[in-house]
Write a structure and sequence with these properties.
This protein is mainly α. It has a single domain (2-227), classed as Rhomboid-like (Rhomboid-like fold, Up-down Bundle), CATH 1.20.1540. Helices cover 55% and strands 8% of the residues. The protein has helices at residues 15-51, 56-59, 63-66, 75-78, 86-107, 109-130, 142-155, 178-196, 208-221, and strands at 2-6, 160-167, 170-177. The protein has a three-stranded antiparallel beta sheet. Helix 1 (15-51) crosses helix 5 (86-107), helix 1 runs parallel beside helix 6 (109-130) and helix 6 (109-130) packs across helix 7.
């Protein structure tokens, strides 16, 4: 189930979203890839162990010192700008590109940028607490982006999301209510997250609890980051595509 677009019209260019996408792309292609090419797998692993989020580094006594690491807290943030491969990067940036602009439009670029970083920290904390004994580095922007998705659902609960599902070799497109999308997504993440709790700490996989924590954190704090003063009242012709900024269908467009 891939989101393709939303029905929320924008008033302002999403500069912060573009900047975040550019920063993630820069880190991957100009830092991670050169390290891997120059030093091989060992160098990249050492880099990810240092800047990725390894929960055991903070919750298992003596583990950090035994592996030449300290208690530096920067990985709670830096891990959100690292990715495990091009496909990982592409999927995360696409999701941010779909949901980020509408949230930024309501918050303003500065507030949105700070909100994104806060969601990244919240997602990292959730992952670390729920996987305290894990010795593998968690990386990826998906936790922070889950916070953006949570904010989108909070701010535009009546909007529609255009979804694509590949059926054999043919793409199938349809609209899904934002709340329905959130329910399906959250149940999937929660089920997978609970299952992952029973896996050994040295088994890799998706950081499900970063997604869950980021989504919940973003949903809870979204309304505290809105532009001030608030937007003017909605007009009769509001919405370039026949939708109001909150996603409701405009009656004048049928």
């Amino acid at each position: 189930m891939f989101p393709i677009s939303t029905t929320v019209a924008l008033r302002h260019p999403p500069f912060a979203t573009w900047a975040l996408i550019a920063l993630n792309v820069f880190v991957f292609f100009f830092i991670q890839v050169p390290i891997a090419k120059a030093g091989g797998e060992a160098a990249l692993r050492a880099f990810l162990m240092h800047w990725g989020l390894v929960p055991a580094r903070y919750f298992v006594p003596g583990w950090a010192a035994a592996h030449g690491l300290d208690g530096d807290l920067l990985p709670f943030l830096t891990n959100t700008f690292l990715h495990g491969g091009f496909a990982h990067l592409l999927f995360n940036m696409w999701t941010l590109y779909i949901f980020g602009p509408a949230v930024e439009d309501r918050m303003g670029s500065l507030n949105y940028g700070l909100f994104y970083l806060a969601c990244g920290l919240g997602a990292s904390f959730a992952h670390a607490v729920m996987n305290a004994n894990s010795v593998l580095p968690a990386i990826g922007a998906s936790g922070a982006i889950a916070g953006v998705v949570g904010a989108y659902i909070r701010l535009f609960p009546h909007s529609r999301i255009v979804i694509m599902i590949p059926v054999l070799f043919f793409p199938f497109f349809f609209e899904l209510h934002a709340l329905a999308f959130a329910a399906i997504w959250f149940v999937t993440q929660l089920t997978s997250g609970i299952t992952a709790l029973f896996l050994p700490p040295n088994v890799g996989g998706v950081a499900w609890w970063a997604h869950i924590g980021g989504f919940m954190f973003g949903w809870l704090i979204a309304t505290h980051w809105l532009r001030k003063p608030r937007y003017r009242p909605l007009q009769a012709d509001e919405g370039r595509f026949g939708c109001c900024p909150d996603g409701r269908r405009n009656r004048h467009f049928g």
